[in-house]
Amino acid sequence: MFEAIITHINKHVLLTPAEEEILTSSLTIRDVKKKEHLLKEGQVCTENYFIIKGCFRMYINTSKGVEQVIQFGIENWWITDYVSFKSGQPSGFNIQAVENSQVVVLHKKVVEELFSKIPKLERYFRVVAEKAYSAQLMRIHYIFNLTGEEQYNLMNSRFPEFVQRIPQYLLASFLGITPEFLSKLRAKKE
After folding, report:
1. Cβ(40)–Cβ(94) under 8 Å?
2. Domain for residue 90, yes or no?
3. In angstroms, rounded to a whole number, what is the distance separating the alpha carbons of residues 182 and 189?
4. Out of 16, 55, 113, 132, which could bridge 98 as a Cys pair, Cβ 3.0 to 4.6 Å?
């Protein structure tokens, strides 16, 4: 049931069987239907999600009333609003399933207890946070230094299965281009 998350953690820190038992007894699994939200703007984020199966998008509602995708999450990735999760303030973000999905839920109230019982989990989450931060920095770099077409080509060369999996209008939103322009880019590649 929790094999995917245990495998992911063990790539970074090795858990003993006793530690695995402590961890898994603190986790729950949730099935999430396509278009269902894990978090809506204005709610306080109290959970961190490890994606076992499926795909999610994190988006904001802009002042112009547009849903702007800022991040995706797929299998073996974590997704949450860390600002709200840590501060207890209402979130400015939405997290929604792009397809039927399944997540492991880590509730905020057990995090500190787990860190005290399994100190190496702090190292694991530091590594996860460093990777996520690095990815966000690269995304900001690409937004300011690459055209929408260049971003699409880069993404398509690095993650072709991901580009095919995401609905075109969501991918266009993420890249900051129109769905029509993305359609032209895809047609040009064929």
Report:
1. yes
2. yes
3. 11
4. 55
Question: pLDDT tens digits, residue range 102-157?
Answer: 999 999 999 999 999 999 999 999 999 999 999 999 999 999 999 989 999 999 99
Is 0.90 surpassed by the pTM of this model?
A: yes
Buried b (16+ CB within 10 A) or exposed e, 64-84: eeeeebebbbbeebbbbbeeb
Task: Provide the 3-class DSSP secondary structure of residue 176.
Answer: coil
47-53, strands of its sheet edge to edge:
28-32, 101-107, 47-53, 78-79
CATH number at residue 102: 2.60.120.10
User: Does position 185 have pLDDT exceeding 90, yes or no?
Assistant: no
- What pairs with residue 49 in β-bridges? 79, 105
Hey, what are 59's tokens?
């988006």
Contact 29/103 with Cβ under 8 angstroms? yes
Q: What are phi and psi of 116, to 5 degrees?
A: -75, -35
Sign of CA dihedral 39, 129, 49, 34: positive
Domain count, the chain: 1
Task: Examine residue 126 and state whether it is found in any structural domain, yes or no.
Answer: no
Residue 190 has pLDDT above 70, yes or no: no
Continuous H helices in 25-145: 82-87, 108-117, 120-145
